Each structure stands twice: as structure tokens, then as C-alpha cells.
Amino acid sequence: MRYLNEFADYDFAGANNPTPYGTFRGNYHWIQDDTLGRVADSIWLNYWWNQNIISNSASLARRLGLDPFEAVFLGVECGYGKFEGATPGEGLVMSGNRGEQIIEGGSTSTVQYLDWLLDESGNPKLSLSLWGGDFVHEQYGKVDNLRYTDAFQWSSEERERMWYTSPKESAVDHTTDIDRTDVEVATGEGQSIVWPGLSKYVAERSAINGAVFATNFNTGHGMQYWLDGKVSRGLEWSNMNLQDFMPTWQWWVETDGAALTLDWDYGPEQEKLLTDGSMGEFDYEQIGAYNGGSSLVAYGDLEAGKAQYINLYKTSLDVTGSSKLSLTYAKTSADDASQLSLGVIFKDAPTKKVLLPLDGTGKQGIWRTVEADLSSYAGKEIAAIGVQILSDEAVEGYQVNFGRLALTDGASHAPAVPKDFAVSKIVDGTGEIELTWTMDSYDSVKLYHVYAEYQDGSEKFVSGVYSDNLYISKLEDRDNVTALKLRAVGPDGSESEADFLSISPRGAASRGAARYAFCLSLDIQKKYLRFSLFQDIIACNAADSQKDGCNFRLYPIYCIRKTVKEAALMDQRLIQILLDSFWKILLPGLTATIPLTVIAFSCAMVIAVATAMVQFANLRGLKQLARFYIWVFRGTPLLVQLFVVFYGLPKAGIVMDPFPAAVLVFSLNEGAYCAETIRAALESVPAGQLEAGYCVGMSWMQTMRRIILPQAMRTAFPPLSNSVIAMVKDTSLAANITVMEMFKATEQINATVYEPLALYIEVGLIYLLFSTVLTKLQQVGEKKLSVYSGQEV
Fold it and tell me: 768: which strand partners?
């Protein structure tokens, strides 16, 4: 709690605080405290800033030894400012010698005056914090909720590019003189576009590295799903797990003539709905994707001799002696004299484009893959990749779709066959399925693809994810599904061999036992075998047996064996999870749960003995204080006490780390209970014992230490032992204040594998193990003490 991740509060400066609202100068101590040092990662500056505040904040951060780009984030109110900013003449105020400043309530102006962020060379001084950027697809198309219809998504994508790239959707043109009322931008009276695009203020960056790379220009959703240029899945879909690396620049076309237009092509099923409710048409022929749901289309007119260079990706890719760069494209326009060239920029020559011409690319055709050899550039690093289009003759109505771009290094990166592919859950009556498998490292596997196999031997893509499980809500044409297949996808986009689960389709006769790898909830009645997965009956009579090779007498036995096998696979996965998690749970038990118990109970005993003796001695004032302490801590929940100390006290300036906070609370709480136990034990000692001590010349303290307390503690030992056992279990509450003890460790493991029943039983058994050991120690202790009391145990 002492070290915060981020400080961002609307109210950290108010009317009675002379510090300018939202400035770093007056609030730097929230990050770099003069006494405590670094106490937070970053601070968010509220919206009413000006040039001086921005410059001074950057300078102060550097004087404090902080990186201004990591520590100070300038607030931009996207959702209110949108593209149009403040009403003309509003939102600014003169602020003495500091010049114009955005006023309180004028946050709409932040999109209009963000150039104040830039220094003389055009580089930003601070980082940005964008608030409400989802307005581009939420705050438009509200009439009849058009924004939620498939046919209106083209507008959402254009608005998104206008916001993040520029109003003209060009990474190098940030001018705002454009009419885009067709996508509901600047539609109000007197409104105009003032936002120049985020790309003006944020430099491009990339996560594309290594020696291989592949993209299908798949945006992660579509009206259909294509495989190798053919429709594999006919259902509309959306799955961001499947989104490829999107082009770094959307868009950046370098040309001396009129630039081609770029867009995403989702195929002929994608319609275009206009704001007036009528249907429009796209300006290109819709052909769809090569792989996935979309391709990148470039269309327009080519001017003779004027190259069009489309910058696509910023990268950090290594070239080897076997490297090849390939492009899969479809040219729908007629044959012409145009030529495609792949373009690369190497890190050691950032201003030079190396063009790799691709032969025959002026011919009309659907999905052709061409390749360029990079072996002569081995040892270099590719900093950027693009495509050039050039024609010696003018071409009208040119169109080309890019379906796949890949860099290979001559080696196979196909992963191993996935393991432990199984069904973990069936939803009766709906056909919903949850699949599981063992997930490999992201270094070797980037994704898992699931396919459905049909009776005619064909395959259809179902879905994909990088995880160890997948929920399938609906199988296309599930009546004819015979198997599910799982393939792992490598860094270069290549797939592994498939692991599969054979299943029985609805209403289809058995085509041989070998086709069916699992059967669930078997119900054999007469000559019928029920598969509960699809709630259907599969007939297997003598005629079917002869025709399809199905031995009816053996088939039920086979299915039962397969059912047991699948159940065993699921059990193996669960057993492996429990084995892997055992030490991960036990270790925090040994390093946190037990130490917390020992330290807290030791402190509690000191508190308890002192409190009990104060009451036993009947010391006025102190006795009432002791009774008050006991009343408070026995009368309030332990969890509430933990929250007060850990989350509440920091408001009063008292900040504690999780473990010390837990020790303090458990000590005080247990001390209250143990004080009453020890007080009762003291009062159980006959009063004559105290008088006997006085008679032999002992003081009160000597009598207590040598005579009374030994007898009392023998009486108190069993209930105190019970308190220790109870405390071991109560330490699980410390998970609520982020103490990494056994229960917290279990919660974190469950968050990744989601096996709550098994994992919580497992941690419960470990708590039971600890309690059992303490119970045995209690029995040994009671037996030892019985020797001195003359009692049998």
C-alpha cells in the first residue's frame, strides 16, 4: 500500500488548496515524497493545463530523477471533446503570465490544444492519458441503434481511423479540412474538425520481432471465415484472439500522384448502411479474406509512372541465409501493366527502401502467392515492410487485395501435436461444448485452432484461442459433425498435426466404431444407442452394420470403453493440476501461513497475559481499559479489523505492508480472546495459593510468576491450543489484504485453470493437515502437563 501503481484523482486539490488544480508542481509528492521517496508509478494531470504547466511538469520530473514519459500522463478528454472540441470562444481563460489555460469544465478543449504537448522539434514532452476513447464507436448511430448493426460497422472503423490516425486517415497528413458528416463527424451548426489524429503525437512502435512473421490481415471478426481463399465457416463471428498484427500505419501511402484508397474487405456478405437508413455500396469488389474474416484492399486509379508505396509494418525482424518474404494477393481488376514489389527498410539504412519486384502481378487472378528471396541480406534487421504498386501505363479501376504477408527462415516452426484434448463440459439441450487441452509455451505456440470434421470428410473452422480451454456456443451444421480437431499454430503461422475427438452427429447412422472417440451418458435400449451430446438416438441395426461396417454387438462396449478413456483423460488433467498446485499451495503455507500464525500468536500471548493479569490484579483504570479492548476486538469481525488497518489507516497517514498489518490484527484479535481464557484460568486457582505466597515472603509478582501462573497455564493449555488451531485457519482471511498465504495462492491458481471444487478441497485438506499436526502436539502437551497435575489424560 505504501507504493501505489498510479495516482489519478479528480479531487486531490480543491478550493482551499492554493495549488493549481491538476498540476504536477504542487502534487509531485504523490509520486516522489520528500521523506518516503518513490511512492507511486505515475500521476495523471487533470484537463485544465497550458503550455507552461506541461513544460514545467516535464522539467520537474527530470529534476526529481523521473522519466516524464513514465511518470506524468497528460489528461485528454476524448469522449467530450470528440473530433470537434469546444464551442468556438469557450474553454480557455487567460491565466496571468502563464498565457492561455484550459479552464475547469473546459475539458472539451483538450483535443483542440494538444499541440501544446509538442516541443520545438515536434516531439511530445509527456505521455498521454486518453479518457473515453470508445466514443468513436459508441457516441454515434444512436437512431434505431444503427451503431450495433453489422451493416454500419464500416462507419465505426472509419471513425476509429480518423481518431487514431488522422481525419483524412493518413499517418502523414494531419490537416482537418475535410467533410465527414457521412460518419457523423462535425454535424452540428458551426462545427468543424479540430482533432488532428493521435498519430501526430505518438510515434509508431512494434512488437513484431524474431526471424519469422505472418499476418492474414485478419481484424478478428467477419461475416464469414475463409481458409485458403474459400469460405470455411458461414456464420458471422467475432473473436479478438484471432486478430492478426494490424498494419502499423492505417494508412500511409507515398506517391507523387493521387493515392490509392485502403480498406478492410469482409466479403460480399458485408453490407453498407448509411446514416439516412438507406443501403450504399462499397467502392471496390468485395471478395473477402484469404485466411480469417478480412483482407486488405487497395483500389483506385494508377497514374503512369507514379509509384504507390504502401507502408504496412514497423518491425524488428532478423534476416537469415534462408529468409524469404512472401505475399498472397488477389487482383480482381483486368490484366494491366502494373507490378507489385515487396519493400523492406533495413535498420542500418532507415531512409532507403529496398524493392523486391514480383513477376506476373499485373494479371487478374484470385489468391496467388509470390515470394522474394532475402538471403543476400542475411545478418540485417528489417525495420519496416511495405508494398509498392507501379504501372508504366495509366490504369483505371485498379484493385488488389492482400491476403497474407509472411517472413520465413527456412525452418519448420510447426508445433507438436496438442495433448490431452478432451470435452470438459456439455450443456444439455443446447449443444454448447467446452473443450480442454494442455497449453504449451507461447514461445512455440501462438494460438490453437479448432476445426469440425463432417460426414463428407470436409473440415470447417470453428474457433481459436491461446488458452487451455475453449467454449463453443454453436457448431455450424452440427447434425453432420463427426469429429473435432485441435491444431497448434506456430510463430510463422504454420499448424501442427491435429489431435481429434470423434463424435456422433445428430441422427446419422454409425459409420464404424473407429469414428467415435467419445460417448457420454450412454443409454442402451434395445437396438438404440443414445449420445447425450446432441440428445439424439443413433440406430445401428443389422443392415447398417453390413453397410457401414458397424458391429452392433461390439459398438456399445466400444463406446463405453471410449467414454471411460475420455473420462480418464479429463481425470488425468485434473490430477496433474492438483499435483502441480500442491507445492505451489504448500510453500506459501510454510513461508506465510505458519510464520503468520507463530508470530501473531506469540504476540497475542504477551498481550493476553498482560491483559489478564491487569484484570486479575483489579487495577482501576487499567482494568476498564483492558475490558474495553476485549469488548472491541471480540465484538467486531476479524475481516473488518483487517480492512480497517490495511485499507483504512492509510487515510490517516499510517501505511503498513500486508504481512505486518496481518500480524498486528491477528495479534490484537487473538490477544482479546486469549486474555479471557487466561483470566478465567487465573481465577480458577484457589485464593489460598496467593495468600500462601504472601506468607512465605513473596511479593505479588513473585507469587504470580512462581505459583499462580504455572497452575493457571496448565488449565488454560487446552483452550489456548484450540485458539492456535483456529488461528491457522483464520489466516486465510489475510488473502483479502493481499498476503500471499495458502488461500491467496489457491485463488491465483484457480484463476488460470478454473477448477474451484478440486483446488479448494485441496487447500482445505492442507489446512486439515496443519490442524492435525497441531492437534497431535496438543495431545502430547496435555499428556505432559497431566503428569504434574496427577490427572490421567
Answer: none
The single-letter DSSP state of residue 503 is -
* Residues 603/645, Cβ–Cβ less than 8 Å: no
Lowest pLDDT segment from 248-262, 571-585, 719-733: 571-585
**Above 80 in pLDDT, residue 3?**
no
Say how many residues make up the chain: 793
450 near 463, Cβ under 8 Å?
A: yes
Q: Give the list of residues 6+ apart from residue 254 with CB closer than 8 angstroms, or none.
A: 307, 308, 309, 311
Triad 123, 128, 130: Cα angle to 5°: 140
End-to-end Cα spacing for the chain = 49
pLDDT digits (tens, 9 = 90+) for 443-502: 999 999 999 999 888 899 999 999 999 999 888 888 888 889 999 999 999 999 999 887
* Strand partners of residue 94: 100
Tell me, what's the pLDDT at 96? 46
C-alpha cell at 752: 488460470
Which amino acid appears at position 170 of this protein? Answer: S
Q: How many helices (H) and strands (E) does the chain have?
A: 16, 35
Q: Distance between CA 143 and CA 148 in Å, rounded?
A: 10
Window from 25-34, 215-224, 649-658 with minimum mean pLDDT: 25-34
Q: What nine digits make up the cell of 172?
A: 502523414
For residue 627, which of 616, 642, 637, 638 has the smallest C-alpha distance?
A: 616
pLDDT band at 520 (very low <50, low <70, confident <90, very high): very low
Under 8 Å CB-to-CB from 294, ≥6 apart: which residues?
217, 218, 219, 222, 264, 265, 266, 288
For 156-175, give the DSSP string: HHHHHHHHHT-TTS-TT---
pTM confidence score: 0.64
Do residues 109 and 85 lie in contact, with contact meaning Cβ atoms separated by under 8 Å? yes
Average pLDDT, the chain: 84
Peptide bond into 131 cis (omega under 30): no
Rounded CA-CA distance 358/339 in Å is: 7
State pLDDT tens for residues 109-130.
889 889 999 999 999 999 999 9
Neighbours of 517 (CB within 10 A): 21
Give 122's DSSP letter. S
d(CA 550, CA 542): 8
Question: What residue has cell string 442402451?
Answer: 524
Distances (CA, A) of 116 to 101, 111, 619: 10, 11, 70
User: With 80 as the cut, is the pLDDT of residue 11 above it?
Assistant: no
